[in-house]
Design brief:
This protein has 243 residues and is α+β, with helices and mostly antiparallel strands. Helices cover 26% and strands 34% of the residues. The protein folds into 2 domains: 187 residues, BirA Bifunctional Protein, domain 2, CATH 3.30.930; 49 residues, Roll (SH3 type barrels).
Amino acid sequence: MLAEVEVVESTGSTNTDLMNRLPGLERAVMRIALHQTAGRGRAGRSWSSVPDGMLMFSLAWPMKQASHQLMGLPLAVGVMIAEVLNSLDVNVRLKWPNDVLRNGNKLAGILIESATQPEQGSWIVVGIGLNLLVPDTLESELGRTVADAPWLARMDRNQLAAMLLNALARGLDQFEREGFGGFLQRWNTLHAYAGQVVQILDQGQVIRQGIALGADAMGCLLLQTGQGQVSILAGDVSLRPAD
């Protein structure tokens, strides 16, 4: 499927822009913004934007499945993005459920929103924020270390966006046919914390601790705890390595 590509100088959020247009979209649309003033991450968290230092875009894409049948899609998209970056020698790994890491720090984030259309499957909007060249001032503002990939900043931005779009187009077609099962082995190979003790947090509170075993065919995180193996749904929870 071909996607229409739009580039804007500045907007609030490319995800919001496309979600607001979903009832009227007739084809896939990739919307790239050089700057976002109200970028969003998962669970409504803000996404800090650095003009010219990031590649930020959203892709609106029609799916045959209804929204409730898209479990595991954020992990599958992570695989699509990571494989492109690894082909460019960035060497990234994946953090469950939706972060791309380089050297243990966040390089890219993924936000997926969806809207079910009666008898027409659903539309998804895949938002990607990829750090290319991040100034020290941003790390000071965030209070944590973030990753970047300066050599990607020297790459033709259109070429990089095209590579990511092509990977997403192929991957979303595969997901439509196979679900997350078609990406499971690849995700587990890229899993940043495989075999490590991790904590699962909900609103900042630790609710589980155990050894991260990997993902299952639904995209849940398998955790080996003192009480046995449990499956963690994504929802509004996050993962961090245990101290």
